[in-house]
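Q: Now give one record:
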Amino acid sequence: MDPVYILPIEILNEIFILLPQDTKITLYLDVSKLWRETILKCPNVWREIEIQQDYRVIKSCYDIGFHVKHITINSTFEEVCFSAIQQLKEGHFKQIQSLKITVPEIENMKRYLQLTTTALYQIRDTLTSFTIDTSKTGKYISIADILSACNNLIELDYSTTTRLSKRRTINNYFTQYQEIPHHHHCLLNLQLKAPFINRHDIDPLLEQCTELRRLVMNGCTTSVLDTIVNKQQQLSETPLNLEILGYNANSKSMAVPQLPKETMTMIRKGKEKKIRGLRILFTNSNGQPVHTQRMLPLLYQNRETLIYIMAHLSPLDQSELVQLYTLYPNFEFPNISRFTLWSVTGIQEFMLQAIRNSTRLSVLDIIHAYDIDGVLKELMTMPPLKHLTILYSTASIPETSNDDPFETTVATTSLISLFKRYVYLSSSSPSAFYSSSSPSSSSASFSSFSSISSTKTITTATMLPGPSRQFVSTTPSLSLKSITLGKFNTVSDRELSILGNIKTLEQITLLDLNNVTTNGIKNLINKMGNQLKYVRLSRMESVTDDILFNLGDMNGLIRIALDYLPKMTNRVMTFDKKSSKSNEHDTTITTKNYSFQPYYYPNEKKDDIATTAPMFTKCVQNVECQNLQVAIDTATDGINEMFDNLMSLLDVRAATLGLKNQVNKGLEDGYRMIDYSPTTPAGYLRCASLFILDNKYNAAMEICKQGMNALSFENDDNEEENGKKHEKYREAQKVLDEKYNEAKTLENQGRVDFITRLPSDIICQILDYLPFSALLETLNVSKVWRDYVTVYPKIWSNMKLTTCPDEKTDMIGRVLSRQHHFSHHVQHLSADELSEDETYDLLIELIYGTYSKLESLDFWSSDMDDGYDECVGVLSRVKTTLKSLRFSLKASNNPLPLGSILAECDNLKTFDYLQSCTVTEEALDGIPTTPINSLNDLTLACASLPTSQLERILKCCPRVLQLSCMNCDTSAFEVVEKLCPYLYSFGLNASPYELSDDDKQSLLNNIDDQQTNSSFGIHHIYFDVRAAWLSVDDHDESLIRILKNNANVLETAKMRFGGFIDDDENQGSRWQNLGTIVTPHLRSLTLNFNLTMSSVISTFLSNCPALEILLFGPGIEFIPSGVFQAASRLSMLKELTIYLANELSDHGLSLLFKKISNQEERNQHEGFNNFQKFKLEHCFSELSKETAHSLAKIPSLQEIYFDGAYMTQDTAESFAWTLAHQHGDYSSSFHTITLISMDCVTDQVLRYLNDIPSLRTIKLSHLRNITLEGLKCLQSNTRISLDFTPHSFQKK
C-alpha cells in the first residue's frame, strides 16, 4: 500500500527530510500527482536546495520555491547557473534568507551582471546572507551592486581574483538606487578575499556600513590597519563598531570566530550593549608575519577590550624592543582569555609581559618558540591555564639521570617544573605549599589563604612552588584540562610521566615527538586512566598497536584521532569493536595514514546469512527505480556488516557506480572481487563490463585474458575431480570469451587505419608534424605502419635527441634499438644535454650504423670526456657527407682534440666549437698541414684561446668567410688580418653577422674565379671592446687599421665601446682616429658608447653618407644633442632605434625629427629614400610634446614602435591627434603602430588612432589605463588588424 495514504503528514515530513535531494526531486516529479501534492505540504523538506548539474531542480522551482530559505548554486555549466539566477529574478523564492553562488567561467559577462543585479533586487526584502565566489571568472558583480540591491543584508562573503579598486567603489553605489538610505545599517558580517585590498577599498566600506561587527580580509595590505586605527580614533556621529577583525587570516585550523546568532539578533533589535573596541583579532598574513610596527597601534588602542588574539608578528631587535616599551607604556591585556602567539625574537618578551597579570587568560598557544625556556619560566609566574599548546620548539633535551619525576634536583628543567606546578594544582587534597624568602611574606600569604578559602566558589588555595609570587586556587577545575605538544624536542618519557599525574587533564595531543618512546606513552596512558576523554597522536614512530589497544580499555575515552603513524597496522581497527562493547560512551575514531587502508571484517555470526538476500534484492530494486545513491548506501552498509555474501554486494555496487559514471570507484570493487576469489569469473566480467562502459575496449580484453589464464588448472590423479573442474572452468571461460569478443567487436567498429587509405603525400605531411619521440612509436604499431613510415625520407631527416631528465635513458635506448629502420634517411642529428654514458652509446651506434646521408652533427651541452676517440671514429665514417659540425661541451670535459677532428673532416663547411676551457698545444696535435678549403664558417668560443693556437687553426682554414672569436688576446687581430684574406663577416667577442648559404656560395664562386675586385674584404664587423681580456692601449691601433682597410666595403657594423658599465674617461682620445674613417657603403650601424666618445661618434656618423639603419644601445648612459645633429645629416636614413638608453637630449631629438621632416618634403620630388620607422624601447627619458609633434609630422613615416616610452597623458593624446590630422598629403604612408607598457595611453588615444585612414595594424600590450570600451572603436574598424592582450586591460 502507498505509504502516503496511511502515514500522517508529520511522519512523512520527517522521512522526506532524511532523503537526498535527487531522490526528493524524483519523488516529486516522477511518482504520482498524490506524491507531488503530499511533498508540497511538507515545507521543511525544501528548506535547503543545491543546484549543480540537475535541471530538474530548476524545473521544480515554480512549486517548491515558496518553501526554500537557503539556496546554493554551484554549477560548472554556464547555462545551469544562468537558469538558476533567472528563477530568482522571476520571484519564485519568496522566503529566501541565504544564497551562495559559485560563478563558473562565463563568456557573456554583461548578460550575467544585469541578471544577477536584478535577481538580488527581487529578493532584497528577505535575503540576509549572501556568499559569492568569482574566482573562476575573475570578474562579475561588484560589492557596490550587491549592497545597492540588498538593503537587508546581514552577512556578505565576497571572493574574487581581481582587485576591488578596478570596480565601482562603495562611494558611488547610491547613485544606482536613490531609495537606499545613506548608511547600510544592516550589514554586520563582511568577509572579503581579493588581491591587494588597500585602504581605498576599506575606508568607504567602514564609512557606509556603520553597524559592521565582523570584518575578515584575505589579500589586504598593511594600509588597512592604519585605516581602522584612524577610524577608531575619530570622534564622529558614526563611530566604528567593529568587534572581530581578521587580517589575512586564512588558516583553516584557526578560523576567525563567527558572530553568535543571539548577538546578531540583539543588535538588530537594538538591545545590545555596545562596546567600543575590538574583542577578537586574528592575523596570519598568508603564513608570513605582519609588520610589528604597523600592528601594534591597533593592539594598543584595543588593549582593554580584546579577549582573543592570534598574533603572527615580525621579529624585533633589541633597539626596536626598547623603543616599543617607550612608545606603548602599560601595554597589557587585562581581559584576554585566549592568546595565540608566534613566539619570535623580541615579540616573545614584549607580548608575554602584556598577558602576565591577566586573571582571565585560560588558553595559550605558543608557536615557533625560539626561547622555550623563557616561555616556560614566564608561565610559572602566571595564573594557571586550562589549555596549553606549544608547537615547533627548537629546545634540546637537558641531561639528567634522575628517574624520580617528583624529586627536585639541580637538573630539573623548566618544563618539568611547569608540569609539577599543575600536578600540585590538580591535587584533590586541600594542602598549601609555601615558598617565601621572608617571614613577612609568609604571614601575608597565610592570611590571604585564609580569606580565599572562606569563599564558596574556591575551596582551597596554594602558594605555588618555584618562582611563583602569588596564591592560586587549588580547585581541580582551575588546573590544566588540555595540552598540545608538537615538534617539541624537550619532551621525553620523564616529562610525560609527570604529565600523567595532572588529575584534571582530559585532552592530550602529541605531534611529532621524536624523543618519546613506546613505554613512555604507555606509562602516560596507564597513569591517566579513565579521566582521559580525547587523544590525538600524529607523526610518531613510537606509537604501536599495543598503545592503541591500551586506549581501547579506557571507559571514559570519547574520541581518538590518529594521523600518519608508520608503525600502526590494520589490526588496530578491530579495537573499535572491542571498545564499543565495554565503553559507556560512543568512541569516535578518525584515522589518516599513508601506510595502510582499513579493511572490511567478517561478521562473527557466520550462520546469520538470511539478511543478505533481502538486502541484495533491495539494492537491485533501487537500481531499477533509478535510486542509485540509495542502492550504493544500502550495499555499503551490507558490506560492512556481512562477509559471507560479499561478492554479490560488491557486484551490485560496482554496477551501480558504473551507472552513476563513477567507473573508477566501480573498478575498485571489481578488482576486490578478483582478489577475494581469483578463480571465479564474476570479478573479471564486472571489470570488463565497466571498461566497456567507459569505452576502454583494450582494457576489457586484457582483463578477460587475465581471467581465462587464471581459470586454467593442472590435472591431478582423480579423474572424477578433473572432469568436474573441466566442466566448471569450461563454462566460465566460455562466458569470458564472449565478453572478450564483445569488446573486440566494439573496438574494431571505431577503428580505421588511415595510413592504408590516404595518399602517400598526405601521409608524409601528417607524419611530418609529429615530434621525433612520437615517430619512434609509429614503428611499433604494426608491420604495415613500419613499412609505410620508413619509406618517407623527409620525416626522418632531422633527428633530435632531447627529453626530460627522467626519460633520457629510455629515449636514447629506443632510438638506438630502432635506428636500423631510419638511419639511412637522417641528414641532421642533434644530441642535447646527454650524459657521458648516453653520449658514448650514441657514438658507438654512429660508428656501426648506416648514416650514409648525415650532413650535420650537433652535440649541445653534452658530456664527452671519455668519448673523444669514438668521436674521431664517427667522423671518419661520415666525413664524405658531413658538412656541419658543432660541439658545445661541458666545462668539466678536457679540451676537444681539435687537431684530430679537423684532420678527419676534409669536406667540412661549418665548424662551431664552444667550451669553457683553454685550448692547449696537445689539443691541436695532428692538425692537418694541408688547407681545408671547404671550411668557410668558423666559431671558436673558449675560456681562453692563445694567439699561437688561433694561428695554427686559421692556417688550415684559409677560405673562412665568417669568423667568430671569443676571449682572444690583443695580437689576434693581426693574425686574422694576415691569414683570412677572404673574410666577409667578423665578430670579435661578439656574434658575427650571419651569412646565408646563397651568400656563401656566391662568395666561394668569386674566390674560385680568382676575382680580386671589391667583393673581397670584411663587409660586416661586430666587436665589443669593453671586455676585460682586452688591454687598454694595444688593440686600438689594430682595430682602427682593420676598419680603415675595409672601410670601402663595410656594410654593417656593431661597435660597443662602453655604456653604463664602462666609464673610461680616456676613450675619446684613444678612439679619436675613428672619426677619420669614411664608410661610403655602410648601411646599418649599432653604437654603444659613453659620454666621452660623443664627439668621436658624431664625426664618424658624418662620414656615413649611405647609412639607412641606425641603432643606439643597449645600455647607453646619455645621447647628447651633437650626436642627433650628426644623425640629422644622414639623408638616406630610413630607421632609427633607441634601445635601453638611460637619458637622451630631448631637444636634440626634436631637432632631428624637424630636419628630417623638412628634408623629406624636398626628397619627395628628388627621388631620395624617406624616413620610415622609429623605435623607442625602454628609454628612461621623458619625451616632450614638441618632440612627439615633430615625429608625428614626418610625412613619410610608416611605422612607430614604443615599448616603455615615457610621456605625459596630454602628450600622448596630442601626439595621436597630430598623427590623425596633421599629415597633409602624405598621411597615406603611415600604416603600423605598436604601444607596449605605456601608462600614458588612454581610450582617447585609441580614438584618435582610429581616425587615421591609412592605419592597418595596431599592436597593444600591458596598457593599464585603457578599457575594453576604448577598444570597441578599433574592433569595429574592418581595415585595422588589432593585436592585443585582453587580460592586461581594465574592464568596465
